[in-house]
Amino acid sequence: MTKAYTLNAADGQQYSSPTPGRLGGHRRARIYGRLDCPSALRAIAAGQYVTHRVFFADEPTAVAAGYRPCAVCMTEAYRRWKSHR
To answer: 74 φ, ψ to 5°?
Structure first.
């Protein structure tokens, strides 16, 4: 049996994928970052975040969906994003 993963597309719609997402995000905060982000992992361990968790195949898709980079785990991308605001 093949496992299916639910990812978010650039238009914000979810779709099924045979490969897991490379980035995770928070739907309400509209933030994306690495799956091993210390900030996200702390929130998940505290019982938060999980119900609003989304996944993206790659960074361009997350950006196109209107998400911004995480300041903790994607520092350089966050600085670039911040400087263009």
So the answer is: -130, 55
Do the beta carbons of residue 24 and residue 30 sit within 8 Å? no
**Structural contact between residues 67 and 25, judged by C-beta atoms closer than 8 angstroms:** yes
Please state the three-class secondary structure of 17-57 as a single string.
ECCCCCEEEECCCCEEEECCCHHHHHHHHCCCCHHHEEEEC
Q: What is the pTM of this model?
A: 0.89
Mean pLDDT (whole number) for 2-9: 90
31 phi/psi in degrees, rounded to 5? -115, 145
Task: Tell me yes or no: is domain 5-83 CATH 3.20.20.
Answer: no
